[in-house]
């Protein structure tokens, strides 16, 4: 009995030791954002191509693969004002973050390096309308930065079975 | 200046005025101390767990408890249909009333408490053990099964630990030869704190008193009546708003009262190095309260039957033995003197 | 002497004032929500509809504890005057009380051996 | 007071032979309570009380509902009700292609999503007869063990929370465990970009390769985790209160455990020396000598000891593997560029892996179209929950909370 | 599958070749064969998975129920077998042999609608008691509405 | 029956006749500010944790993301809580329970939908068993997207809620009514609360279903003729 009670007192060794430890708490998010790794997936952006046009070609690969079915793309073919070549453009690109699961499959399949995820988070709102990303908002997100490391090309290069060096993964 | 002192002396000598003034001052201070204890518990448990605890409202989060209070003041009144309405609504203020009342005989200054009763120890213990009735009534009147289980456990536990609590409080009484709390403290003058002198029964009685008062105040490892992980919120499951606030407040005041009693009975009350007085008493009571909190955030809890077995197989006989040891010491020391 | 008890009574009154004062403040300040609402006032049982009332005959295990408590409480009452007057009575009282409690403890031992506190 | 259970002493227990298995004699062939007991047939000493524990209850680990029939505080019949989280994952997987289905299984066992992914992905690989490259295999093994540590951290935290309350010592253990779990989540976050639902595997390999400097971080984290493990032990292993709550409580008959399909630590704490990582190696487990901790007492304390030992073993495996990850690609198939990128041949496979909770299996039927005909996930937690009617009888409400915690069920996996 | 199981299947069922995904067993001999497997050390109940095969032009509506058992311990192996039943058929329960079959069979009863003969407690497991239909059947629409919640 | 889910009250009956007393308005404004401040900064959470988000919600209370910093902690019973955090998928079987628990909470109360499943049903939203978002049966104040939202996102959600409480008390709260965004929203299978298409009969049926719940306690197997044989 005595032995058992003395053993119980060892519990205090842990709590007392921890009283002296440095605390591990992150700053509150409205004061300073936590440091995220570069692959962090928390939002979306539609990037521009090298000509400054939207890179999306409205191929609907992301719309088809999205398990959640939240992406709706409508496109049309027209002449590019920059290069003069005919290509497809998205007329509307709606991404309803209310049902997004951040699985990165849209990035995985994108053929034109257009859609990317962001490390900056989606801000909570008081209505569901706050969470709908339209084409304008997606492009504005891209200009704002905080893009995740994984582009469609980089992801696929990393997963390529032909890849020789095992290092991989560096940005 | 002397006029003020005269006025104070007059107040002190007239019974009802003394009760009134001391009552208001003591109760206000004790309520603030209870608020402070809640704040301290949240900060200290945070410290133990490498997190800051409340920080945002006021410096170090000290206003947090007031925000909670104002919030509770505005919550809707709920009385579930199935309850025994009258009892259900009547019980919560009783909790606070009972624990606050026990302070009438607990002295914090050498001049004595509001009512320096000749049976102070008994009265304090008796009133604070009344706590079991509102808790039981709350659990039963709720007509909720979790509350019923909580109330059943609370009653069984409180009445069981009543015995070692009273018996271990008898040890200082025997050593001092009086039930009056001021005289018990007086008997501990010159560093003859009963926790350390006579060596043995005093310290053991303190340990018993401390553990039993943990059980009386429903603190871990003896908090089975309101074990959140088992009984949702125990007897208070159906209580919301300020009705719950009363239980919440009562719990912390109870802890402080029990710590004050322990300080008076075993640690010489206001005796201490330098000038005696309120500061030593408060310091001792608060240190004991802090230790209760530290224990709470370190240990897990017993099962109710283990708890009762612990009481009846170890605590009660141990307390009896201690009473006899104290009696023997008293007689032998008296015979020697 | 009377003063002490008057002071105590006044103190109790102040305590009552504090307790019911807060309740009064709450009664004045609280939000009036929905009207009598059976959904709001249903009994909580983890989100389920309760199956039967909680006002039942409870298992007597707890009553055994109450019985033992009464036994020891009476004994404690006898101890109190004894403790106060120990100086006057001396060693004889100690031995006498020892005998009295010895008999009581026999009953306690019997209860323990009978498993009064063992639940399973 | 309960003193140390004899079978926790380091003495070899008596064994009994059952169908080629040697099981501890003291707990084999225990009398089994009748799970279908008619309540009217039972005559309690006072009024019986029917108490709903759950679906919202602080310690039912999600949305399990236990209907307890109590005689005083002692339960004489317990009926678990599940399905409050039935999300029809199997129905959905029968409408999704291989690429799309990985995020769904993430959410089954949400405490160890990677094992769920691996079970599904390995089923597809078995159907396609694809062997992931060695780098992917080793990486998968490391991920599985990291996930196992994180999962056991969460388990230990919530287990103590059940015993010590949200305001109490249990809460301290809980927060200490989560503190170290966050370190492991940070590793997985750096690798995959998410804290919980990683979507880290795909058919034929991994989706993510290690970022630079990851291996060193893993080793540093393992040191930290192992160091802190001793602290939790100081708060639990010899703690008298902890022992009196767990020793001799919820003793599980190994035969019942086997027949009910329980797995993982629940099985090994009852003396069954069985672990798929050693007995039917997958991924890179064949390359490491996995040591399986086995206890013979079968109670909550034994399950606790087994899980603690498993954490140490997982740390050892991670250390062993992470220093020698082979070079090469991480995928055997071309990275998918289309929703139907994986062509399924017709066939029928079953693949089982050792998740932190036991054997997590996937049974898959394909008729040659891109989407499978039937996907059945064999959840270890379902079988753990189905043990409750046997274990809860004769226990008090406090014990039931502990028993439930010690079985470590995840309701997302039970209900799917 | 290990050799002793293959031998058992060959002798009991009179099969030449046992497919790796398990042989088809007649429903009435299922308990005997499973009991024999249990004797051989296959003590761990793995799974019971029913599949609905809607009617096509070549075959009528049918169900298959697949069972898996495992022999625990070093060198662990599985034994798998299947049962094919017509749309209105039923299948003997295994819940007397394996406690784990109880809930798995209830689940299959709930989701696929297989009737297990002799099951002591055949109720819905996952869905509410008053649910209509069996969702894992191929003719059950994935987005069936349920007033008032969806 | 709590039919009207949209009614949110902050009526203090005392104010009505206190305002009539001259000279009290300043005191009243101060008192109101203090009371609002209390309401805003003491949010006790009722964790309606069902699945994955429940685990992340646990993480919000742990040392690394300490929720107690701004005075938020959990209480196990709805009677003592102010905010219901719905964390996880709500199924058809669970929905009446959630509704019942929500009805049990005392006013003033708020609801935070944490994670995609609670907001919209996530990728299960078209499935037979899953409710397409909790706002089809209880009013939601703050939406925290994510799958699951990281703990710091939940903290930000609580911050948004505090902001909303302040604005609602002041009467300055304006919800987002961006028509383009409204157009892009995925439509749940039944109308949400606040949607003009919503039929009051639906709310009544939901309240009724939550109040008169099937106790579901039959233990004996159902009789032979009740079974639906395939």
Provide a short characterization of the protein structure:
Helix content of chain A is 27%, strand content 18%. With 171 residues, chain A is an alpha+beta fold. Chain B is an all-alpha fold.
How would you characterize this protein structure?
The complex is a heterohexamer of chains A (171), B (337), C (120), D (416), E (150) and F (230). Chain B has two domains: 1-74; 85-336, no CATH class. Helices cover 69% and strands 0% of the residues of chain B. Chain B contains 13 helices and no strands. Chain B has helices at residues 2-13, 15-48, 64-74, 85-101, 120-129, 132-141, 145-176, 181-187, 201-216, 228-231, 241-266, 278-296, 304-336. The radius of gyration of chain B is 21 Å and the shape is globular. The model of chain B has no long low-confidence stretch (mean pLDDT 83). Chain C has 120 residues and is mainly alpha-helical. Chain C has helices at 2-29, 61-84, 86-89, 91-113. In chain C, helix 2 (61-84) runs antiparallel to helix 4. The model of chain C has no long low-confidence stretch (mean pLDDT 78). Chain F is α/β, with parallel strands linked by helices and 230 residues long. Helices cover 37% and strands 8% of the residues of chain F. Chain F is built from eight helices and four strands; from the N terminus they run H-H-E-H-E-H-E-H-E-H-H-H. Chain F has a four-stranded parallel beta sheet with strand order 1-2-3-4. The chains are: A alpha+beta (171), B mainly alpha (337), C mainly alpha (120), D alpha+beta (416), E alpha/beta (150), F alpha/beta (230).
Q: What keywords describe this structure?
A:
heterohexamer, B: 337 residues, mainly alpha, 2 domains, 0% strand, globular, C: 120 residues, 4 helices, flat
Q: List unreliable stretches of 5+ residues of chain F.
A: 1-7, 215-230
Indicate the overall shape of chain F: globular
CATH topology of chain D: Cytochrome-c3 Hydrogenase, chain B
Summed over residues and divided by their number, the pLDDT of chain F gives a mean of 79
- Under CATH at level 1, the class of chain D stands as Mainly Alpha
- The share of residues in extended strands of chain D comes to 5-15%
Largest sheet of chain F: 4 strands, parallel
Q: Count up the domains of chain D.
A: 1
Instruction: Write out the strand line-up for the largest beta sheet of chain D, numbering strands in chain order.
Output: 3-4-5
Task: Draw up the topology in text.
The complex is a heterohexamer of chains A (171), B (337), C (120), D (416), E (150) and F (230).
Chain A: H1 2-19, E1 43-46, H2 61-65, E2 71-79, E3 86-96, H3 105-109, E4 115-118, E5 132-133, H4 135-144, H5 152-159
Antiparallel strand pairs in A: 1-4, 2-3, 3-5
Chain C: H1 2-29, H2 61-84, H3 86-89, H4 91-113
Chain E: H1 3-13, E1 24-25, H2 30-39, E2 44-53, E3 62-71, E4 77-86, E5 90-92, H3 99-111, E6 115-117
């Amino acid at each position: 009995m005595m032995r058992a009670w003395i053993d119980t007192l060892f519990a205090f060794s842990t709590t007392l030791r921890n009283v002296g430890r440095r605390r591990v708490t992150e700053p509150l998010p409205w004061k300073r954002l936590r440091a995220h790794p570069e692959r962090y997936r928390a939002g979306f952006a539609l990037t521009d191509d090298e000509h400054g046009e939207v890179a999306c070609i409205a191929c609907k690969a992301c719309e088809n693969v999205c398990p959640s079915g939240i992406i709706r793309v409508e496109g049309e073919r027209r002449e590019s004002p920059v290069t003069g070549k005919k290509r497809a453009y998205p007329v509307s690109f709606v991404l309803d973050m209310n049902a997004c699961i951040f699985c990165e499959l849209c990035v995985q399949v994108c053929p034109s390096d257009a859609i990317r995820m962001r490390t900056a988070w989606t801000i909570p709102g008081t209505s569901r309308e706050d969470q709908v990303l339209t084409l304008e908002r997606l492009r504005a997100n891209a200009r704002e930065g905080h893009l995740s490391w994984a582009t469609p090309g980089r992801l696929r290069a990393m997963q390529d079975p032909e890849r020789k060096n095992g290092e991989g993964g560096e940005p | 200046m002397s006029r003020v002192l005269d006025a104070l002396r007059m107040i002190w000598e007239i019974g009802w005025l003394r009760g009134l003034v001391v009552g208001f001052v003591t109760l206000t201070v004790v309520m603030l101390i209870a608020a402070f204890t809640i704040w301290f518990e949240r900060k200290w448990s945070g410290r133990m767990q490498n997190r800051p605890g409340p920080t945002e409202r006021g410096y170090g989060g000290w206003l947090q408890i007031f925000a909670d209070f104002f919030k509770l003041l505005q919550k809707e009144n709920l009385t579930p249909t199935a309850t025994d309405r009258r009892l259900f609504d009547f019980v919560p203020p009783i909790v606070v009333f009972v624990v606050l009342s026990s302070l009438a005989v607990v002295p914090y200054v050498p001049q004595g408490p509001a009512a320096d009763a000749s049976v102070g120890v008994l009265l304090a213990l008796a009133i604070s053990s009344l706590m079991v009735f509102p808790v039981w009534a709350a659990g039963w009147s709720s007509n909720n099964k979790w509350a019923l289980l909580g109330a059943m456990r609370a009653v069984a536990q409180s009445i069981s630990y009543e015995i070692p609590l009273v018996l271990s409080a008898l040890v200082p009484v025997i050593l001092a030869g009086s039930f009056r709390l001021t005289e018990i403290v007086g008997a501990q003058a010159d560093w003859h704190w009963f926790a350390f002198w006579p060596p043995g029964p005093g310290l053991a009685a303190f340990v018993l008193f401390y553990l039993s008062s943990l059980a009386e105040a429903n603190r871990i490892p003896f908090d089975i009546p309101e074990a959140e992980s088992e009984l949702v919120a125990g007897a208070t499951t159906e209580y919301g708003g300020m009705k719950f606030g009363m239980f919440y407040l009562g719990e912390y005041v109870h802890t402080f009262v029990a710590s004050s009693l322990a300080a008076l009975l075993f640690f010489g009350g206001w005796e201490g190095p330098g000038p005696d007085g309120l500061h030593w008493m408060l310091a001792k009571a608060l240190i004991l309260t802090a230790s209760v909190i530290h224990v709470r955030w370190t240990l897990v809890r017993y099962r109710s039957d283990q708890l009762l077995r612990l009481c009846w197989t170890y605590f009660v006989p141990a307390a009896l033995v201690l009473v006899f040891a104290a009696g023997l010491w008293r007689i032998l020391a008296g015979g020697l003197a | 002497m009377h003063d002490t008890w008057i002071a105590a009574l006044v103190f109790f009154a102040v305590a009552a004032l504090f307790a019911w004062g807060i309740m009064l403040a709450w009664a004045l300040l609280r939000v009036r929500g929905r009207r009598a609402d059976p959904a709001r006032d249903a009994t909580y049982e983890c989100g389920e509809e309760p199956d039967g009332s909680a006002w039942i005959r409870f298992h007597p295990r707890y009553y055994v504890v109450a019985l033992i408590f009464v036994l020891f409480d009476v004994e404690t009452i006898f101890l109190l005057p004894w403790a106060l007057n120990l100086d006057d009575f001396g060693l004889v009282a100690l031995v006498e009380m020892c005998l009295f409690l010895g008999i009581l403890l026999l009953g306690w031992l019997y209860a323990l051996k009978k498993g009064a506190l063992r639940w399973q | 007071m309960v003193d140390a259970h004899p079978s926790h002493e380091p003495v070899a227990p008596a064994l009994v032979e059952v169908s080629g298995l040697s099981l501890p004699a003291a707990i084999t062939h225990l009398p089994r309570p009748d799970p279908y007991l008619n309540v009217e047939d039972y005559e309690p000493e006072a009024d019986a009380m029917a108490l709903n524990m759950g679906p919202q209850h602080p310690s039912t680990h999600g949305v399990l509902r236990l209907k307890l029939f109590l005689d005083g505080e002692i339960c004489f019949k317990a009926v678990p009700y599940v399905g409050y989280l039935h999300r029809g994952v199997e129905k959905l997987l029968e409408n999704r292609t291989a690429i799309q289905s990985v995020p769904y299984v993430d959410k089954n066992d949400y405490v160890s999503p990677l094992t769920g992914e691996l079970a599904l992905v390995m089923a597809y690989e078995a159907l396609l007869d694809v062997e992931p490259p060695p780098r992917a295999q080793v990486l998968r093994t490391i991920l599985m063990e990291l996930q196992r540590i994180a999962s056991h951290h969460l388990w230990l935290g919530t287990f103590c929370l059940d015993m010590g309350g949200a305001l109490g010592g249990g809460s301290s253990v809980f927060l200490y465990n989560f503190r170290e779990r966050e370190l492991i989540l940070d590793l997985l976050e750096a690798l995959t970009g998410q804290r919980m639902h990683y979507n880290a595997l795909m058919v034929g390999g991994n989706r993510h390769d290690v970022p630079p400097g990851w291996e060193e971080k893993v080793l540093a984290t393992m040191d930290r985790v192992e160091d802190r493990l001793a602290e939790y032990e100081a708060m639990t292993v010899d703690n008298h209160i902890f022992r009196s709550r767990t020793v001799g409580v919820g003793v599980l008959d190994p035969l019942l455990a086997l027949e009910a399909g329980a797995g993982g630590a629940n099985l090994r704490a009852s003396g069954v020396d069985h672990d798929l990582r050693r007995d039917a190696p997958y991924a890179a487990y064949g390359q490491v000598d996995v040591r399986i901790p086995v206890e013979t007492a079968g109670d909550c304390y034994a399950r606790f000891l087994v899980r603690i030992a498993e954490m140490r073993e997982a740390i050892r495996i991670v250390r062993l593997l992470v220093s020698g990850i082979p070079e090469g690609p991480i995928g055997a198939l071309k990275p998918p560029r289309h929703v139907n990128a994986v062509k399924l041949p017709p066939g029928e496979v079953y693949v089982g892996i050792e998740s932190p909770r036991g054997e997590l299996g996937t049974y898959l039927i394909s008729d040659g179209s891109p989407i499978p005909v039937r996907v059945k996930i064999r959840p270890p937690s379902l079988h753990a929950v189905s043990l409750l009617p046997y274990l809860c009888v004769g226990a008090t409400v406090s014990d039931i909370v502990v028993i439930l915690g010690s079985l470590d069920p995840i309701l997302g996996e039970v209900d799917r | 599958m290990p050799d002793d199981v293959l031998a058992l299947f060959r002798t009991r069922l009179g099969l030449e070749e046992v497919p790796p995904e398990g042989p088809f067993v007649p429903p009435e001999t299922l308990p005997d064969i499973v009991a024999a497997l249990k004797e051989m050390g296959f003590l761990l109940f793995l799974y019971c998975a029913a599949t609905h095969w809607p009617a096509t032009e070549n075959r009528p509506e049918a169900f298959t129920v697949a069972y898996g058992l495992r022999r625990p311990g070093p060198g662990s192996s599985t034994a798998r077998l299947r049962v094919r039943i017509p749309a209105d058929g039923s299948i003997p329960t295994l819940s007397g042999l394996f406690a784990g079959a109880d809930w798995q069979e209830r689940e299959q009863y709930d989701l696929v609608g297989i009737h297990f003969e002799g099951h002591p407690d055949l109720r819905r497991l996952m869905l509410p008691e008053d649910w209509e239909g069996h969702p894992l059947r191929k003719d059950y629409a994935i987005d069936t509405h349920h007033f008032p919640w969806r | 029956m709590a039919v009207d889910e949209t009614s949110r009250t902050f009526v203090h009956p005392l104010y009505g006749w206190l305002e009539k007393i001259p000279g009290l308005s300043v005191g009243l404004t101060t008192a109101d500010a203090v009371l609002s401040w209390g309401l805003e900064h003491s949010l006790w959470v009722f964790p309606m944790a069902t699945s994955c988000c429940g685990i992340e919600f646990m993480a919000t209370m742990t040392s690394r993301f300490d929720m107690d910093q701004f005075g938020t902690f959990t209480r196990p019973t709805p009677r003592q809580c102010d905010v219901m955090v719905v964390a996880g998928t709500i199924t058809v079987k669970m929905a009446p329970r959630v509704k019942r628990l929500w009805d049990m909470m005392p006013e003033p109360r708020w609801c935070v939908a944490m994670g995609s499943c609670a907001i919209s049903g996530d990728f299960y939203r078209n499935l037979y068993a899953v409710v397409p978002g909790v706002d089809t049966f209880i009013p939601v104040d703050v939406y925290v997207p994510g799958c699951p939202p990281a703990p710091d996102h939940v903290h930000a959600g609580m911050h948004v809620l505090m902001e909303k409480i302040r604005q609602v008390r002041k009467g300055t709260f304006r919800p987002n009514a961006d028509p383009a965004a409204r157009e892009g929203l995925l439509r749940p299978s039944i109308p949400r609360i606040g949607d003009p298409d919503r039929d009051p009969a639906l709310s009544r049926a939901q309240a009724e279903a939550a109040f008169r719940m099937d106790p579901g306690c039959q233990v004996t197997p159902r009789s032979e003729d009740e079974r639906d044989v395939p």
